[in-house]
């Protein structure tokens, strides 16, 4: 067993000044550890959407009627607040779990050798999006679940999932210049698919904002739109996304594309079929809460699947030459 090095006063001072550099100088994670850390952040970003949906669908959106405290007198939920208070406060606590997952991803990325600045920046981008969405979640409560702020809250969560997906992909590839695996026409088709998917998700938040699940049992204002019309527009966009995905798969087969883009397109198509089935069932069964929640999580999976198709269109091999970074420089300074 290796001898544990003594920690000097200078070491403690360095840890206080820059804890990430201090850890990076003493720990080198395996590539699989970095990949798992990025995946954990992505999984938690989806889970927090699911639990946020549970808050709304159980009518617990104002279970904690204020923010950042749960009540004016208490930081946590009280027994008088009952089931709704527990659900809302529990979702708030999960934000800390999400922060821990993102923090682990940042530490692992910063400690990887050679140092990859682009990977660390993706981790920090997730952190700031989480912080921004936490503040926006507080605003949602303070304005009484205004549907426009609720929609913005979900869209910012979608942005978090996008960054987390990109970071997860980047942990499994290098920092060399990307090499396209398909032609320009295929890339343009995929970008159209991404754009329509973004529009699909955005219109989905409008469906939610105009629909019956307001998030609280009290009188909560809804978007002044006809819910049936918006739902049909959402369905049309969903069919466009399905058609684009089906067409993309045939194009990739026709041009004899590599297995990566084909597999990711096939995965997306299967996710879309499952999501569409849930969407139609919930529509014709008067929106049961469990199916609405599943549809929200499915929206996240559709978005991840779409981004994975986009990211599969190129490869980024690892560079042979190590790139020195802050951790390396800190070790040299200590020597």
Report on the structure:
The protein has 335 residues and is an all-alpha fold. Helix content is 70%, strand content 1%. The protein contains eleven helices and two strands; from the N terminus they run ααααααβααααβα. It has helices at residues 9-17, 19-24, 31-57, 82-111, 117-142, 147-170, 184-210, 227-254, 259-284, 289-311, 326-334, and strands at residues 179-180, 314-315. Strands 1-2 form a two-stranded antiparallel ribbon. α6 runs antiparallel to α7 (184-210) and α7 (184-210) runs antiparallel to α10 (289-311). It is flat and about 60 Å long.
Topology of this protein?
Blueprint: H1 9-17, H2 19-24, H3 31-57, H4 82-111, H5 117-142, H6 147-170, E1 179-180, H7 184-210, H8 227-254, H9 259-284, H10 289-311, E2 314-315, H11 326-334
Antiparallel strand pairs: 1-2
Compact description:
By secondary structure, the protein is mainly α.
**How many strand elements?**
2
Series of H and E elements: HHHHHHEHHHHEH
**Global geometry:** flat
Q: Tell me which oligomeric state these chains represent.
A: single chain
Instruction: Provide the low-confidence segments as ranges.
Output: 320-335
Instruction: State the strand order across the main sheet.
Output: 1-2
By helix and strand content, what is the structural category?
Answer: mainly alpha
Q: Taking all residues together, what is the mean pLDDT?
A: 88
Determine the fraction of residues in helical runs and give it as a percent range: over 70%
Strand content: under 5%
**Helical run tally:** 11
- Give the termini distance in whole angstroms: 23 Å
Rg to the nearest angstrom?
Answer: 23 Å
């Amino acid at each position: 067993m290796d001898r544990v090095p003594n920690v000097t006063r200078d070491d403690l001072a360095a840890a206080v000044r820059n804890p990430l550099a201090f850890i990076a100088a003493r720990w080198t994670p395996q590539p699989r550890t970095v990949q798992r850390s990025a995946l954990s952040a992505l999984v938690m970003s989806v889970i927090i959407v699911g639990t946020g949906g549970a808050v709304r669908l159980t009518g617990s959106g104002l279970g904690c009627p204020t923010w950042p405290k749960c009540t004016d007198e208490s930081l946590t939920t009280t027994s008088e607040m009952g089931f709704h208070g527990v659900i809302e406060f529990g979702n708030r606590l999960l934000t800390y779990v999400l922060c821990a997952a993102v923090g682990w991803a940042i530490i692992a990325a910063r400690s990887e050798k050679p140092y990859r600045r682009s990977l660390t920046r993706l981790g920090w981008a997730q952190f700031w999006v989480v912080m921004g969405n936490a503040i926006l979640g507080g605003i949602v409560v303070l304005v009484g679940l205004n549907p426009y702020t609720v929609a913005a809250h979900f869209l910012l969560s979608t942005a978090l999932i996008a960054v987390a997906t990109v970071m997860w992909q980047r942990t499994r590839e290098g920092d060399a210049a990307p090499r396209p695996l398909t032609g320009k026409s295929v890339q343009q088709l995929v970008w159209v698919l991404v754009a329509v998917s973004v529009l699909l998700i955005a219109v989905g938040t409008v469906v939610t904002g105009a629909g019956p699940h307001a998030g609280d049992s009290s009188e909560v204002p809804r978007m002044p739109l006809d819910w049936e019309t918006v739902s049909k527009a959402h369905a049309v966009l969903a069919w466009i996304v399905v058609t684009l995905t089906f067409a993309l798969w045939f194009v990739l087969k026709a041009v004899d594309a590599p297995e990566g883009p084909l597999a990711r397109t096939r995965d997306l198509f299967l996710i879309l079929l499952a999501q569409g089935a849930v969407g139609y069932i919930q529509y014709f069964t008067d929106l049961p809460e469990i199916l609405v929640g599943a549809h929200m999580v499915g929206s996240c999976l559709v978005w991840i699947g779409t981004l994975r198709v986009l990211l599969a269109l190129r490869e980024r091999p690892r560079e042979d030459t190590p790139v020195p970074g802050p951790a390396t420089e800190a070790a040299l300074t200590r020597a």
